[in-house]
Design brief:
The protein is mainly beta. 0% of the residues lie in helices and 47% in strands. The protein has no helices and 11 strands. Strand 5 and strand 6 form a beta hairpin. The protein starts with a strand and ends with a strand. The mean pLDDT is 96.
Length: 124
């Protein structure tokens, strides 16, 4: 069964950090570009960050630039999202998605696989 599984979501105070993981099972991620997305209650899903299959090219939403870092370890079949200086407005369900191409895909549509999401709550 081909699937992506996110983990690492938690309740954290403003200013804190979390690292989300996106692990693939049933397929190898090294041929897939990956995107991270989030959806807050009552809002549309939005792009957070994206990375090429090699990890050599990345991009970020303006709202997270300088605070979030996307990376990947193809040997571990996992992509990460390091989130620092978290704010209450970062509260959302975070999803990863994979598309079978080398170049990063920094938009919401066009992905082949989606994970089930992991909840990130930033609150004091």
């Amino acid at each position: 069964q081909l699937q992506l599984v996110e983990s690492g979501g938690y309740l954290v105070q403003p200013g804190g950090s979390l690292r989300l993981s996106c692990a693939a099972s049933g397929f190898t991620l090294n041929a897939y570009a990956i995107g991270w997305f989030r959806q807050a209650p009552g809002k549309e899903r939005e792009g957070v960050s994206c990375i090429s299959s090699s990890g050599g090219s990345t991009d970020y939403a303006d709202s997270v630039k300088g605070r979030f870092t996307i990376s990947r370890d193809n040997a571990k079949n996992t992509v990460y999202l390091q989130m620092n200086s978290l704010k209450s407005e970062d509260t959302a369900v975070y999803y990863c998605a994979a598309v079978g191409r080398r170049e990063r895909l920094c938009r919401l549509f066009g992905y082949d696989y989606w994970g089930q999401g992991t909840q990130v709550t930033v609150s004091s």
